[in-house]
Design a protein that fits this description.
This protein has 11 helices and 10 strands. The protein is α/β, with parallel strands linked by helices. The strands form 2 sheets. Strands 3-2-1-4-5 form a 5-stranded mixed beta sheet, with helices on both faces. The longest helix has 27 residues. It is globular, with a radius of gyration of 20 Å.
């Protein structure tokens, strides 16, 4: 490291909340020097979803080599780091514990601060890696396998949850429907692929909007409608067109997400919408929002696909702003699988 590099803020981000073991080295909030992801998708595909016990074991096997590779690619050592940021919730408790325990040990041994990051916050901060000109206030539509939230992001560390799912998250519903259609895991990309050859108007699935003015979400009924359609057809001995089912369901999910996002924009007057989470990579969602927001002169921002899934770079990005605020975690930091998003 040169003398000028020594003065930079260098954050190691560690992410193990579900089925990706990831580490990244970020310099001064925008310069991503390395980004390593060890995915467990192939391991869990045979089960149709993530098996928590297997996930935690895989994290235990891969966290050390993943961190070592991230440091090597960034050409830094532990003594060069300013801090280590780690996801401590929400997520699978066993998976979280692997990351938290590892990060605590590394930070303590290196004599540097430990920063605990909320996984949801990390997803939002993925947008800051590619967009350095974002100005507050911002509205975030966070759509992943475990969460669907609308969040007013008023300043670094200051959040207000405007709406959230009351049952299934959008990504969770996509996974379950994909499994029922025999498309495999993870469901979101499989549904999108199948939908390319389908008719989005072939099936009329419900769009749950809830009470007038509500920004909450509900995808359970929509998912059940697909399953009931499949079961009814099987009882009659009929075979339904899978691409049509996929396209119709995907359209229903996107319709709800876009409708609620537009309501939130109208209610808050915010001029920039951030997409975040794994489902943010869905091309139909992006294209529909782009079309609607151009009409309203509202800016749409989203991460590149590799930064939509769980990753260490987003944790490092959030960690950078925590570091600047002096918001460090105690050595008693523990995994919190049901962690809520709160302002600092």
């Amino acid at each position: 490291m040169t003398e000028s590099q020594d003065k930079k803020v260098i954050i190691l981000g560690v992410e193990t909340s579900c089925d990706e073991t990831s580490a990244a080295v970020l310099v001064d909030g925008f310069d991503l020097r390395s980004h390593i992801i060890s995915s467990q998708i192939m391991t869990h595909q045979k089960y149709g979803g993530v098996v928590p016990e297997i996930a935690s074991r895989e994290h235990s096997l891969h966290i050390q080599p993943v961190v070592q590779q991230a440091l090597a690619e960034a050409d830094v050592g532990f003594t060069d780091l300013s801090a280590i940021a780690v996801t401590y919730g929400p997520g699978l408790v066993g998976s979280l514990l692997v990351g938290v325990s590892g990060a605590k040990a590394m930070a303590y041994a290196a004599g540097i601060p430990l920063i605990g990051i909320n996984h949801l916050e990390g997803h939002i901060y993925a947008n800051f890696l590619n967009h350095q000109d974002l100005e507050f206030p911002l509205l975030a539509l966070l759509v992943s396998g475990g969460h669907t939230h609308l969040i007013l992001f008023e300043a670094h560390g200051k959040y207000r949850v405007l709406g959230y799912t009351r049952d299934d998250a959008a990504g969770e519903a996509l996974d379950k429907v994909a499994r029922a259609l025999g498309l495999g895991y993870p469901g979101g990309p499989q549904i999108q692929k199948a939908a390319q050859n389908g008719d989005k108007q072939a099936f009329k699935f419900p769009r749950a909007m809830l009470e007038p003015g509500s920004l909450d979400f509900s995808f359970s009924g929509m998912k059940s409608a697909v399953l009931n359609t499949l079961n009814s057809a099987r009882m009659r001995g009929e075979t339904l067109n899978v691409p049509d089912l996929a396209a119709s369901f995907q359209q229903a999910v996107v319709d709800v997400l876009v409708h609620k996002a537009l309501m939130a924009i109208q209610q808050t007057g915010v001029q920039t919408l951030l997409l975040a989470g794994g489902v943010a990579a869905n091309s139909l969602l992006r294209e529909t929002l782009e079309y609607e927001l151009v009409q309203r002169k509202v800016r749409l921002v989203y991460p590149q696909p590799i930064l939509c899934t769980d990753n260490g770079a987003m944790i490092a990005a959030a960690g950078y702003y925590h570091y600047r605020a002096g918001n460090f975690a105690p050595w008693t930091l523990n995994a919190v699988p049901g962690l809520n998003l709160k302002s600092i």
